Automatic annotation (TrEMBL):
It holds the Pfam family Por_Secre_tail. The keyword Translocase does not apply. NCBIfam families: Por_Secre_tail. Residues 1-22 form the signal peptide. The keyword Signal applies. Keywords: Signal. This is T9SS type A sorting domain-containing protein. Residues 381-443 form the Secretion system C-terminal sorting domain.
Amino acid sequence: MKINLKQTALMAISVFLVLCNGAELSGQLGWEFAGDVAGQTSKVFETQNADLLIATTGNSRVYRLNPNGELLWGRDICNCNDGWVVISVENPSGDLVHLTKNGQVYLTDADGLNSRFVTNITGDTSVNSRFGYIADALFKDNVIQLFGEVEIGGVDYLLRGKFDVSTLLATYELEISSDAPVSMNINDQNQRIEYLDSPGTGRIVVYGPEEEIMLDTILNIPERIADVFFGPDNLFLAGRTGDFNGSEGIVYSIGYTGEIIWSRVFYPSGFDNKIYFFGGDFIDGQIILAGSIGRGFDMDSYAVSLSPEGETLWSDRSAMFDEGNYANTVLAVSGQNNCVLIGGQGNVTDVGGRARPFLYKFMLPTVATTSSILVDAEIKIYPNPNAGTLYVDHDPGLQYDAIRLYDLNGVLIKAFSGLHSALDLRGIATGMYGLQITRGDEIVLSQWIWRN
């Protein structure tokens, strides 16, 4: 399972939920976790029993959480020069395999103990003046696929490799290239996509299931792309246009022949002068982009959801959680289509004042499309949280026969028959609910509400 992590850039995101009619709500948090040492979240891997392994950039620290987000342990997996762990995964025997930024591989038991050095993929002591780094890595079918760069005798090479966690054997190939590796992803059809920085532009490579090259082209785009991921029948790129002094967020939809299908630019306004997008994924029919918005070092989290055609479904700006300052992880939780994990580097610091890694789990609501909602009537919802009342204001001629309230799992919580101008929500627990107003089999309004 791929988490879109960009190790060379930071992005900010909040835990969020939004109303389906475009209004925003700050989110319903499942749980939150903050590490105990400086660093940021690199990647998160879900084990066979649904535990979460969090690789981080500091002190070679790896954390293991249970499915409820409770810490089982946090350990430094090696006493090594490189404290940046790119990815930590589980092999079939239950042992853990850890890959560091400079290509070192370590093996530990399930509790993170008894660390053993296995190999160094980027380094080779038999070759003089060789060094390198891993830009991105992902895990599928017991194989860590890695994407990086090495320099041998002053010549730059792209590194594409595989490490089998069952046999503990590594294979790799080198390509002389001045392009810099950025991001890669794999879809359910075992197609792999790579994005590389080429001088002044970008290069995208798509491989088929048998490693055949389906696309290898230079894209004439000047922006700094940070993440690449698959859509239903296309590819998506997320990034930014500028630098620290000013930037817009950018997203591209790319076809399998390399053509640009559409692009969107997100402009800051008012006091803000920067929007960054440094990660994204295609989850439950939505393009989810995660980034930062603000000025200088005063950055808030920013998240946007788009339809596959690039239309904005919702957006969120929030700084409500101290830990959620910079993030670099978006992961759909297996078996829970409405849950998303967000991780990165937070504002909460260690004793030395350095930021610590964090991880959130929160609910991602299904966004209702306009095709499922009648728009021939004006309806407005006005909450009165102090009185536990929800007011329904609508056109005098509107006819409807039922109002229903559902929880996030789709379970009916309460139903009201006939016309109502006020709904009594006392006795209903605090949380997010789906409100649906119907006329026969027709949906007049479908909207998320928050019960304080």
